[in-house]
Design brief:
Blueprint lengths: L3 E4 L5 H9 L10 H10 L2 E7 L2 E10 L7 H9 L4 E8 L8 H13 L5 E7 L5 H9 L3 E7 L5 E8 L3 H9 L25
Parallel strand pairs: 4-5
Antiparallel strand pairs: 1-2, 2-3, 3-4, 5-7, 6-7
């Protein structure tokens, strides 16, 4: 069966949590309550599914999210408008096959019609040169560093989205994006009941 990138569903959260906590030192472990909070606030939360198995996920949010992450707050303090990649996890057996690039292309297509910047961080302790190189080849530049209160030192990265000025001038300043499915926002739950309008 073909690989599908789709919005997360609530019943996926147990599988997402297991993937997150099996990822190793490059991803901070979490618990179901924190993951559920991300599920409720994330503007972009997609999974890769094949043959009924979740092979990976990426969580991202815009600058107005109610999120206490120290790294997210750093970007809020320095930039007016952005999409922040909080985490990406690929199952160990699926690494090295381009799934990370597929996710980054997908989140970029979400971001570039809404904001001028795509942001994230990578751990510098322990340094993972494969991760650093991956982000460099995807066009990210270091814009700062900081030591997390309960974690490692990180490199804060941003990528300018060259399509955004065109989208802003042609659409966002003249009534907004077209009403087509591929441009629609994720339907997020409100207070744990139903979906956002």
């Amino acid at each position: 069966m073909a690989l599908a990138i789709r919005d997360v569903r609530e019943h996926d959260l147990d599988a997402v949590l297991a993937l997150n906590n099996a990822a190793g030192t490059g991803i901070l472990a979490t618990d179901l309550d924190r993951l559920r909070h991300l599920y409720e606030i994330a503007h972009y939360f997609r999974v890769a599914e094949q043959d009924g198995r979740i092979l990976g996920f990426l969580i991202a949010m815009r600058q107005d999210a109610d999120y206490a992450s120290q790294n997210f707050r750093w970007f809020q303090a320095h930039y007016e408008s952005f999409v922040y990649i909080d985490r990406i996890v690929i199952a160990s057996q699926s690494r090295g096959h381009g799934l990370g690039r597929i996710f980054y292309c997908d989140v970029q297509s979400y971001a570039e019609v809404r904001v001028p910047l795509l942001t994230c961080e990578v751990f510098l302790e322990p340094r993972n040169d494969q991760t650093v190189l991956f982000h460099g080849t995807m066009g990210f530049q270091e814009v700062g560093q900081q030591k997390m209160e309960e974690g490692p030192k990180v490199s804060l990265l941003a990528r300018e989205l060259p399509s955004f000025p065109f989208v802003r001038e042609r659409y966002l300043e003249h009534g907004g994006l077209p009403k087509v499915e591929w441009l629609a926002e994720r339907q997020r739950p409100i207070d744990g009941v139903g979906a956002a309008a």
